[in-house]
């Protein structure tokens, strides 16, 4: 299957439980909750996106004809180091394109595989680390994973509502629960509110977007 990739870059995972870990980010083009065009933002299901995922014109991006070709590009982006190889598939929405063939190709090259997903699509098997970030108004179906990372605040999907939705899954639907302050015009207020919420509700931990703080991609 061909893959449309916006950009491919080496960095540190900036968010969540794996923050600070070296990774290659593979950002797939396209999303099912927003076209990516500013003209459509106000009418989209997901309206606060901080990312350009349109097209294949970013650093290291392009159209890759098959899994082996994309896996080779990701490996080249990582470099020679054999240990702790880590790739994060994101987007846009990675589950629109990530398949078992690409997962096998990455495992074959010694990579641990993570995804950042909005949780509206079933994942292929074999992913090592699943981060689900549900969106208010979207059809959230993926209710298990390694971490749940809720952008905060979202009218219509506050942490209490998330806990209520997850109750039937019982116990350990996710290993980690994070609130990530919404970036945008109210960022400072959102950081303060998220910190205050975590202080009062200790199941939830604060996820800052540390890559933005230190000026790396
Ligand atoms: C750009 S999304 C791509 C992956 C997938 N579509 C998703 O939404 O999880 C990557 C991460 O950034 C988060 N994010 C997007 N816009 C944000 C914003 N304005 N402030 C904070 N986090 C944001 C998402 O919730 C998600 O956890
Ligand atoms: N450094 C860094 N960490 C990230 N964690 C999740 C990101 C994403 O956009 O999916 C992201 C990103 O864009 N950069
Ligand atoms: S679901 Fe993810 S990629 Fe899609 S618009 Fe929302 S934050 Fe951006
Ligand atoms: Mg990002």
Automatic annotation (TrEMBL):
Its EC number is 4.3.99.3. It holds the Pfam family Radical_SAM. PANTHER family: 7-CARBOXY-7-DEAZAGUANINE SYNTHASE. Catalyzes the complex heterocyclic radical-mediated conversion of 6-carboxy-5,6,7,8-tetrahydropterin (CPH4) to 7-carboxy-7-deazaguanine (CDG), a step common to the biosynthetic pathways of all 7-deazapurine-containing compounds. S-adenosyl-L-methionine binds at residues 48-50, 92, 133-135, 180-183. PROSITE patterns: RADICAL_SAM. Mg(2+) binds at residue 51. GO terms for molecular function: 4 iron, 4 sulfur cluster binding; carbon-nitrogen lyase activity; magnesium ion binding; S-adenosyl-L-methionine binding. Substrate binds at residues 12-14, 27, 90, 217. The gene is queE. This is 7-carboxy-7-deazaguanine synthase. Its cofactor is S-adenosyl-L-methionine; Mg(2+); [4Fe-4S] cluster. It comes from Zavarzinia aquatilis. It is an enzyme of class 4 (lyase). [4Fe-4S] cluster binds at residues 31, 46, 49. One of its GO terms (biological process) is tRNA queuosine(34) biosynthetic process. Belongs to the radical SAM superfamily. 7-carboxy-7-deazaguanine synthase family.
């Amino acid at each position: 299957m061909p893959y449309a990739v916006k950009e491919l870059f080496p960095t540190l995972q900036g968010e969540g439980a794996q923050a600070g870990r070296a990774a290659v980010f593979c950002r797939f083009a396209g999303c099912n909750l927003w076209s990516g065009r500013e003209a459509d933002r106000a009418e989209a299901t997901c309206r606060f996106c901080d990312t350009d995922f349109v097209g294949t014109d970013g650093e290291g991006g392009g159209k890759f004809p098959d899994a082996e070709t994309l896996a080779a590009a990701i490996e080249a982006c990582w470099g020679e180091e054999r240990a702790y190889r880590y790739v994060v598939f994101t987007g846009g929405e990675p589950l629109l394109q990530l398949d078992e063939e690409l997962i096998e190709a990455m495992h074959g090259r010694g990579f641990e595989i993570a995804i950042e997903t909005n949780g509206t699509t079933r994942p292929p098997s074999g992913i090592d680390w699943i981060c689900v970030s549900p969106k208010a108004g979207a059809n959230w179906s993926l209710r298990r994973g390694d971490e749940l990372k809720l952008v905060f605040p979202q009218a219509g999907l506050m942490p209490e509502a998330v806990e209520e939705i997850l109750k039937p899954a019982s116990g350990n639907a996710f290993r980690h629960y994070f609130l990530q302050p919404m970036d945008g015009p109210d960022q400072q207020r959102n950081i303060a509110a998220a910190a205050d919420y975590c202080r009062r509700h200790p199941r939830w931990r604060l996820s800052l977007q540390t890559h933005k703080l230190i000026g790396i991609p």
